Amino acid sequence: MFEVFVESHFSAAHRLLDYPGNCAHCHGHNWTVRVFFQTEGLNELGMALDFRAAKTSLQKVLSTLDHKDLNQVPELAGLNPSCEIISRHIYRAVAADINGPAVKVARVTVCETPTAGATYFE
Q1: pLDDT for the residue 101
Q2: Does the pTM exceed 0.85?
């Protein structure tokens, strides 16, 4: 089994609804995102996945979040835009684009600071 990943980032604001503290106020983060893919085999070039395809898929979803108020992003409507919710959203978007018989999204980690984040997997 092989596991490969791509990493990117985006900047966005959010506020956590009903949160009993400062995070209830609008504030921003420079979010870091890692998407991990798994496969049992390699292609004819000896690669698990073309990193270009993985990065393109990730950038497609991050472009809908970058420099936005996450509380206003339609795909997150009605949800509290926590790291957990954002990691699930990115997982599902990339999985819809990349998952197949040869390779699948294993997990997505989203960090709002260098020392705090969340991972989603199915």
Answers
A1: 76
A2: yes
